[in-house]
Every structure is written in C-alpha cells, then in structure tokens.
Amino acid sequence: MTEAPPKHRPIRSFVRREGRMTPAQQRALDELWPVYGLDLENCPLDPEAVFGRRAPLTLEIGFGMGDALLAMAAAAPDADFIGVEVHRPGVGSLLNRLQAAGVTNVRVFCADAVEVLERCLPAGSLDRVCLFFPDPWHKKRHHKRRLVQPPFVERVRGRLAPGGVFHLATDWEDYARHMLEVLSRSEGLRNTAPDGRFVPRPSYRPETKFERRGMRLGHGVWDLVFERAG
C-alpha cells in the first residue's frame, strides 16, 4: 500500500503567542462570549440577524487589545463592527471593555481572519475592512508570511460592497511599499490617494499610544485606502 502524500500546511501570517491570561480576561471569555462572540461553526453569518438591524458594517482584522475597534465603535453607534483576533488575552480584554463602556455594536471572532473571510462573511457585505499595523515580518526570509498578498486582497475585495474601502496602516516603510504594490495591481480596487500612493490618517482611525511614541522618535506611519470599484 502506498503512503498518502503529506498534507501541505498553509503559511500562516501569525504565530499564536498566548502570553499570560489574566483572571479578568479569562472570566470575560467565559461569561461574555455568548454576548459578543462569533464562532466559525455558526457560519456563514447573516449580519442583519447578528446585530438585529441593517447598518454599515466594518471588519477589523487583527485588533490586538481592541483599542481602535472599541474607539471606532463607540464613536459610530449607528454602524456595526466585527473584530477578528487570534490571541485570546486581547479578545478577553476587549470583551471586558465593551461591557464596561456599554458598547453593543461589536461582535468578535477568535479565529484566523482568512477563515472568517472565506467561510463567514457574505459577498458584498462589508462597507469597510481595516487592517492596522499587521505583523510586518521584516526579515526577508519571512516576507512570505505577510498577510497582504494577492489571494488575501482578492478575498477582501469580494467581501466589500461596491464603494466599500480597504484601509491599511503600517509603521514599516518596506511593508507600506509592499502593500501599495500588491493593492495597486489588484483588479477592482482603486487607490483613493490623489497621487496614487498614501493618504493622511483618516479621522476615524484612532492613534495608538504605540503609534504616538513611534512618531515622537521620528518613525513614519503610512495609511492606504483603496475603494472597491463597481
């Protein structure tokens, strides 16, 4: 009997570094997940059923500890937000702060964003996709792990409604150039920057403490906003 060929393992854009889970974060996952949590097993989603209304829908990929997601949702109560993050301490932290702030227009996946895009979100269902400060995988041998690659961008484009936008931000200039090249070559996406490059930080994207510290040290930040055409 011949042996089956080994299965090809997909290249991941992230490494699960769980870190220390605080009791409060674990309690939030245990008690608040039924309120805010979304599971791959229940996909595909009907966003109107999830939120109980029809409203503009934003997806944030890799929300970290949830600072930007919480701020954006609190500032836009007439819109809905879905966050995706693989690291459970960050998810637990966000759940606690959502409850404390009384923010009800956010739902959360603790899962791989690629799976969420493929399995859970209907075509044309998103008005905005945000990818803020993804891992730049700065060593050249790790560039293949970067999330922003043509297949990923095509998945995002397919989930955007016509006129919807894909907003990316990074503080690594090399990754910014890579993002610009990949998105500029993607069919069905149009760069909103007048010069075809980068845009000033949109007012809805909060500055993080990490970002402000980097700017004081002279580090740059690059924002890209591409719109789905047609």
Automatic annotation (TrEMBL):
Q: Which SUPFAM superfamilies match?
A: S-adenosyl-L-methionine-dependent methyltransferases
Q: Hey, what's the signal peptide range on this chain?
A: none
Q: Identify one Gene Ontology CC term for this UniProt entry.
A: tRNA methyltransferase complex
The pathway that the record names for this protein is: tRNA modification; N(7)-methylguanine-tRNA biosynthesis
CDD domains assigned to the protein according to its UniProt record, in alphabetical order: AdoMet_MTases
Family, as annotated: Belongs to the class I-like SAM-binding methyltransferase superfamily. TrmB family.
PANTHER family, per this entry?
Answer: 3-DEOXY-D-MANNO-OCTULOSONIC-ACID TRANSFERASE/TRNA GUANINE-N 7 - -METHYLTRANSFERASE (PTHR23417), PENTACOTRIPEPTIDE-REPEAT REGION OF PRORP DOMAIN-CONTAINING PROTEIN (PTHR23417:SF14)
The EC number of this protein is 2.1.1.33
Q: What class of enzyme is it?
A: transferase
Q: What organism is the protein native to?
A: Thioalbus denitrificans
UniProt lineage: Bacteria, Pseudomonadati, Pseudomonadota, Gammaproteobacteria, Chromatiales
Q: Does the keyword tRNA processing apply?
A: yes
Gene Ontology molecular function terms on file: tRNA (guanine(46)-N7)-methyltransferase activity
This molecule's function is given as: Catalyzes the formation of N(7)-methylguanine at position 46 (m7G46) in tRNA.
Q: Which InterPro entries match?
A: SAM-dependent_MTases_sf, tRNA_(Gua-N-7)_MeTrfase_Trmb, tRNA_methyltr_TrmB_bact
Q: Which residues bind S-adenosyl-L-methionine?
A: E60, E85, D112, D135
HAMAP family given in the database record: tRNA_methyltr_TrmB (MF_01057)
Taxonomic superkingdom:
Bacteria
Against NCBIfam families, the record matches this protein to: tRNA (guanosine(46)-N7)-methyltransferase TrmB (TIGR00091)
What is this protein's name?
tRNA (guanine-N(7)-)-methyltransferase
- Residues that bind substrate: K139, D171, T208, K209, F210, E211
Keywords attached to this entry: Methyltransferase, S-adenosyl-L-methionine, Transferase, tRNA processing
Q: Which reaction does it catalyse?
A: guanosine(46) in tRNA + S-adenosyl-L-methionine = N(7)-methylguanosine(46) in tRNA + S-adenosyl-L-homocysteine
